Amino acid sequence: MRSRKQAEGAKVPAAGRRAPEFSGPKAKKTSRNGVYAFSFTVFAVVFCLVIALFSSMLSVLVVLGAAVVATLATLSVRVAPQWERVVVLRLGKFSRVAGPGPYFVIPIIEHVAARVDQRIITTAFVAEEALTADLVPLDIDAVLFWMVWNPKDACVEVEDYSSAIWWAAQTALRDAVGRINLAEVATRRAQIDHEVKEILDEKTRTWGITVVSVEIRDIAIPPDLQDAMSKEAQAERERNARLLLAEIEKDISEMFVEAAEVYEGSDKALQLRTMSLIYESVKDKGGLVIAPSAFGEAFNNIEKFLK
């Protein structure tokens, strides 16, 4: 988690503005130079053929006519990249989905309504001040991975499917966060991701869009609440440490009581313990050791004791 000040750079675009599809490293767009080169080639070939056919009567009108015929040919014969599908309308009604590869369009009667990219698209979005179930405002940064599987529905059923799924994702994230408490947000990220994905799938199914995954990148909480949570966590750790220490002391005291009962019921055990203490005190230092007379009594009648 990070503070609200650190999240100021990830603001939600104003209403009516389209959100950026990716706010991370600059994306490398796939080149469409091949499509443009194909159109230019068609124009050049048709233009040259017309000029060659009417070379004997070459004039300004012939050149203009050749340009018009070449333009119509360019508008009629087109090509779509492998990842692209083209929605074609005929007299305002849906006709077909063309591509990939070359396709034909009847000028004036037909026109291209949309070019739909069917690759997985990455969209970053932010839910600002989303309220949890215990009314704590959070700034949540997330990434949405989605793709268009039905170009017809994406073109016909929604005006701007890219912006629509961005706003739907933001709303779904707010709904999912509003069902849980603050303490559960950090520990239930995977569940929130799954819930947002299910909500979006239900909304976008009729748009011809499928949501691949939703991943929360960051959660920003208010700074004052961060301090309170930090103090609460420290107090909880100190409490656990004190409880553990008390349990250890209790176990040690119980073992001491059991040892005292054993020594009380057996003089031999007490004498062995006394001799062990004397040995431990002199094994490293050596030499003469001055000890209370009670320690010396442990060695009285040692032969009888060993028997």
Automatic annotation (TrEMBL):
<dbReference type="InterPro" id="IPR036013">
    <property type="entry name" value="Band_7/SPFH_dom_sf"/>
</dbReference>
<feature type="region of interest" description="Disordered">
    <location>
        <begin position="1"/>
        <end position="29"/>
    </location>
</feature>
<dbReference type="GO" id="GO:0098552">
    <property type="term" value="C:side of membrane"/>
</dbReference>
<keyword id="KW-1133">Transmembrane helix</keyword>
<keyword id="KW-0812">Transmembrane</keyword>
<feature type="transmembrane region" description="Helical">
    <location>
        <begin position="35"/>
        <end position="54"/>
    </location>
</feature>
<feature type="transmembrane region" description="Helical">
    <location>
        <begin position="60"/>
        <end position="80"/>
    </location>
</feature>
<dbReference type="GO" id="GO:0005886">
    <property type="term" value="C:plasma membrane"/>
</dbReference>
<dbReference type="InterPro" id="IPR001107">
    <property type="entry name" value="Band_7"/>
</dbReference>
<feature type="domain" description="Band 7">
    <location>
        <begin position="75"/>
        <end position="233"/>
    </location>
</feature>
<dbReference type="InterPro" id="IPR001972">
    <property type="entry name" value="Stomatin_HflK_fam"/>
</dbReference>
<comment type="similarity">
    <text>Belongs to the band 7/mec-2 family.</text>
</comment>
<dbReference type="InterPro" id="IPR043202">
    <property type="entry name" value="Band-7_stomatin-like"/>
</dbReference>
<keyword id="KW-0472">Membrane</keyword>
<protein>
    <recommendedName>
        <fullName>Band 7 domain-containing protein</fullName>
    </recommendedName>
</protein>
<dbReference type="Pfam" id="PF01145">
    <property type="entry name" value="Band_7"/>
</dbReference>
